[in-house]
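Allow me, if you will, to draw on your knowledge of protein folds for a short while. Thank you for your consideration; the sequence and its tokens are set out here:
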Amino acid sequence: QVQLVESGGGLVQAGGSLRLSCAASGSIFSVNLMGWFRQAPGKLRELVAIITSGDTTRYSDSVKGRFTISRDDRKNTVYLEMNSLNAEDTAVYYCNANLRPRVGAVSTSYWGQGTQVTVSS
């Protein structure tokens, strides 16, 4: 069993910062792509940022320059540093990881349960 557990969400004023964490645990052989997605009320889930096993990153245009994704492979953890937050960043943030649970297994996508980020204006 693989679990992704997010933490760090909460309520913050516009212009403030938050740091999200997501730790993968359980049967893990290797972790490939990791990322963050978000879903605002009434909207589809959208990509926020992704990071490869080689530390290549990609961001959505709406967060570029304000958010930073990073990972610690010793801890199977991915982070999202969010700065200059605004009301449009309010959403449930979901962690995603593509990983192999054991040697020879196919890479599979796993999701966290989500953490709420609310930015007050």
In short: The first strand starts at residue 2 and ends at 7.
